[in-house]
Design brief:
With 148 residues, this protein is an alpha/beta fold. It has one domain (28-147): Glutaredoxin, CATH 3.40.30.10. Helix content is 29%, strand content 23%. It has helices spanning 42-53, 55-59, 73-83, 96-100, 138-147; strands spanning 12-14, 20-22, 30-35, 63-69, 88-91, 113-117, 123-128. The strands form two sheets. A five-stranded mixed sheet has the order 5-4-3-6-7. The longest helix has 12 residues, at 42-53. The radius of gyration is 14 Å and the shape is globular. It holds the Pfam family AhpC-TSA. Residues 2-148 form the Thioredoxin domain. It is an enzyme of class 1 (oxidoreductase). Monomer.
């Protein structure tokens, strides 16, 4: 994973509507990038729904949540609508952002990982799950955010 304390690499990716979104648009705000392997898979669905269920915990801390996987914008749109996900899902079909953040798994898909970026663009936290079938419990993630 990208080292904490480094400048987060800027990127531009399409969202679920095809609109291009750049990380630099969020300068001045904290951003939590959530890398995940794929839409509508059992563990990813549980993970993203957990973020959905706790989105108020992020917004109350001034954090914008953004999900990133290699799925297409169309797949993201269906996934977000089906599960009522209230945050951006960005399509990294070439895996360039996953590579830039060292979040590319051994199967060529994004690892299950997160990166918290501060208002100036510095990486505050980075974490990757060793096993692709689990993800860090929300209480542990929030505790790490509060301690940063």
């Amino acid at each position: 994973m990208i080292e904490e304390g480094k400048i987060a690499p800027d990127f531009t990716l399409p969202d679920s509507t095809g609109k291009m979104v750049s990380l630099s648009e969020f300068k001045g705000r904290k951003v939590l990038l959530i890398f995940y392997p794929g839409d509508d898979t059992p563990v990813c669905t549980a993970q993203l729904c957990d973020y959905r269920n706790n989105v108020a915990a992020f917004t109350s801390r001034g954090i914008t949540v953004i999900g990133i996987s290699g799925d297409s914008p169309e797949s993201h749109k269906q996934f977000a609508e089906k599960h009522k996900l209230p945050f951006l899902l960005l399509s990294d079909q070439e895996r360039t952002v996953a590579k830039a953040y060292d979040a590319l798994g051994f199967l060529g898909m994004a690892q299950r990982a997160y990166v918290l970026i501060d208002e100036q663009g510095l990486v505050l936290l980075s974490y990757s799950d060793f096993l692709p079938v689990t993800y860090q419990p929300m209480k542990d993630l929030l505790a790490r955010i509060d301690a940063s």
